Every structure is written in C-alpha cells, then in structure tokens.
Amino acid sequence: MAPGVLATQPHAPHTLSDHVKSNSNAPKHVFPDGIRTSGQLDPDYNLLQPYESFPKRIEGPTVWTRADYVDHPQRWVHVFTADEVDELGRASDTFIASGTPLTGISKDNFSLPHLAKRLASLRNDLLNGKGFILFKGFPALQWGLHKSAVGYMGLGTYLGYFVSQNGLGHVLGHVKDVGDDASQIDKIRIYRTNARQFFHADDADLVGLLCVHRALEGGESDLVSSHRVWNVLQHERPDVAKLLTEPIWYFDRKGEVSAGQQQWIKTSVFYKEVAKNGRVYSKWDPYFVKSLSRFSDKGLVPALSPAQQDAAQVLEEICAREALHMVLEVGDIQFLSNAHVFHARTAYRDYPPPEPRRHLMRLWLATPSSEGGWSLPFADNDEKKRGGIQVNDKAPVAPLDAE
Predict the structure, then answer these.
(1) I want to staple 261 with a disulfide (CB 3.0 to 4.6 A). Which of 93, 257, 285, 358 is the partner?
(2) How many CB atoms are closer than 10 A to CB 298?
(3) Is the peptide bond between 377 and the residue preceding it cis, with omega within 30 degrees of 0?
(4) Would the pLDDT of 14 be above 60?
C-alpha cells in the first residue's frame, strides 16, 4: 500500500484540514462525482464521553440475539423478484451505454423508480434497526464482472456514498486471496488473504459484499449486534466495558496515510453519538490494534497492556458466542451497519485451478449525519464521504477484479 510520512506534529484532531474543507467540492477531473473521501481521522477528544455516561443496558431494535433470526430468514433475507432484476438490468445497461466511468455512478444516473422505495426503507433499518440484510438472486454469473459491478454499485448509491477503501483509491473493493502473507499483519490487509477475519467494523458507515464466487470450503459469515455485546459486557465484565470506552486504543494505518499524518489513530472502541441520548457506536479491528509493534518497540506508542489484551480476547469471545452465522452463495449481497454490527469471516480454502477463487465485491458507504446518519465525534461528521481511507489526492478507481 502507499507509504506514508510519520508526523511528529499532527494536526489537532478537532480541526478541519484543507482536505476535509474541500471534500464536497473536489476537482471533477480527479473525482468524477466531485466528492473526495475524507479518510481516517482521530476523534475530537473533547466530544468523547466518560464511561459513567454510557447506558447500563441498551434497548431497542439495534439489540438482537441469534435466536431472533436464526430460524426466521424472512426477517432478514430478501429475494430479488424478476421485476427488480429487470429494473436493475435496465439501469445498468443505460449507465454502461452512457460511457460514464464507474466512479461517477450516482442515484442521478442510475434510476430505480420502483426499487428506490424498498431501498429507502432498508437504509433506515440498516441505520436505526437490526443493521443488516441479505439479498439473494442477483444475477452475478449471468451478467459477468462489468455489469455486476455497475448494478451492485448503482444499488449501493441508494444507501450511501461510496468511499475509498485503501491507499490505492479502490471504491469497488475485492475480497479475494491474492497470495499475501497473513502473518505480516503490519504490512497487509487481511481481506487479501484466506485467513480468518475476527470480529470487526470497517472504516465506513455501511459495508456491502456481493458474492461472485464461493470458496471450496469456509469463508462463511458471522454477524453480531454490538449493542447486544455491550449489554453482555456490562453484565459480565463491566471492567472491560469501561476500558473499551477509554481513548487509549491505537489503530494502525498500515502506511495508508497522506503527507503530514501520523501512522496511527488513537481512539476508543465504544463511544457515544454527539447528541442528546446519543447511541453507542463501535469501532474495532484486532488486526489493526495488534500490528503496532514496529512503533511500540521504538516507544512511539504504548504496547497493549495486559488489561487491553484481556479485553480484546473477551470481546472476541462474546462476539463469537452471540453471533448469527450465514453462508453467502453466488448472487447474494450482504449489507450491514458498521455503527452497531460487528462482522467476521471464517478461514477458507479455494478450489484448485482452473476453478475461480472465492471473490466478493465490496462497497464501503458513507451516511453523513446531515442525511440521517449517526452523529459522530469526528471533524468529517457532515461530510458526504466521511470515513474511508484517502491518501493525498489519490483518484478513486473501480477495478473489476483484485489488483
């Protein structure tokens, strides 16, 4: 990934950088829709709230257990109808014929007059309800990579604004084993390997996964309500819950930084919305927390304390215990909220050549607070493409396969 420069004098986390100020008026010759991904930021520490202000127990539709859904797929699975597939197909064909680059796709040039109503309801459920859905019946094999990418990204524009997922500017990502060494967690991203992905949340409000090809075995999906996890922590290990609300957790940026930025961010794992009766938001990825030894060995950041190591293990164990398991088949699309759902993937093994490798197209989508998204303690809270990973002015790209 792109190299970065270690900053000894980082920008104040609560100050809007020049990049953030101009994100919604970015040069269209670089950013076809005129919007730049804001990228990873430290929180405004003045807006973080102490553990004592957090709820002892969270109630409502964002709190769910495996038993609520494991035997009730009708509550979380939608099979595309023939009319819906036709509408997606027509919109995709029209977009392709226009010659517009895939990075310029939007609701304005991808018309879904009937599906739009369902997607508006789905968006609300993703943000304020259970936080996940599984679509089935997307014609990925019949359409091929190009049309599938167009249809999938077009669908996604009705849920949020696509953001860059890495230092290469990928707004259409590819979860695929490209041969990277999964043990080199300070140098690589785990989605480019076949290793297990532990429970985590991505650096975007929503994440989507379209299954193009399945693995021979493994690669299965697990989801858990982070609000359910919070309730269990408060009941069983309030000491861990408290530690996870403290801004003492360093997350590795793995070199995907712009000039003048630090190689890590420092934040908490659970924090509250910046609003009255703010909801509990979660940010976590153990691979990014445990890969900082190259900095801690030099005294640049503290190593994980025994209490933090214990907290990470407890969090993973509770997530695994409470999770809903599902298998993504070819043509399935999973959307979920990173605000209040953790997700994981089992390790997998691909078919031997010449059979295709497991391949999921990935979208990261932003939902700014000004358009119904959660109100977060970050300088880019109202930015259309908040979050994500942006390196300098790297242009967005939408490759049709892993690079």
Answers:
(1) 257
(2) 8
(3) no
(4) no
Q: Which amino acid is at 32?
A: P
What is the spatial distance between Cα 132 and Cα 240, in angstroms, rounded to a whole number?
A: 26
**Is the separation of the CB atoms in 389 and 37 below 8 Å?**
yes
Q: What is the pLDDT of residues 207-220, one digit of tens each?
A: 999 999 999 999 99
The pair of three-digit structure tokens given for residue 362, joined into one six-digit string: 């990935």
> How far is it between the farthest Cα atoms of the chain?
60
Q: Which pLDDT tens digit goes with each residue over 314-352?
A: 999 999 999 999 999 999 999 999 999 999 999 999 999
Alpha-carbon dihedral sign for residues 105, 108, 109, 110? positive
Residues comprising the chain, all counted? 403
Measured CA angle at 377 (ends 373, 383), to 5 deg: 50
Residues 232/224, Cβ–Cβ less than 8 Å? no
> Is residue 2 scored above 60 in pLDDT?
no
Two structure tokens written together for 297: 């060995």
Residue 28's CB: how many other CB atoms inside 10 A? 11
Three-state SS letters, the chain: CCCCCCCCCCCCCCCCCHHHHCHHHCCCCCCCCCCCCCECCCCCHHHCCCHHHCCCCCCCCCCCCHHHHCCCHHHCEEECCHHHHHHHHHHHHHHHHHCCCHHHCCHHHCCCCCHHHHHHHHHHHHHHCCCEEEEECCCHHHHHHHHHHHHHHHHHCCCCEECCCCCCCECCEEECCCCCCCCCCCCCCHHHCCCCEEEECCCCCEEEEEEEECCCEECCEEEEEHHHHHHHHHHHCHHHHHHHCCCCEEEECCCCCCCCCCCEEEECCEEECCCCCCCEEECCCHHHHCCCHHHHCCCCCCCCCHHHHHHHHHHHHHHHHHCEEECCCCCCEEEEECCCEEEEECCEECCCCCCCCCEEEEEEEECCHHHCCCCCCCCCCCCCCCECCCCCCCCCECCCCCC
**Residue 236 backbone phi and psi in degrees, to 5:** -100, -40
d(CA 358, CA 293): 31
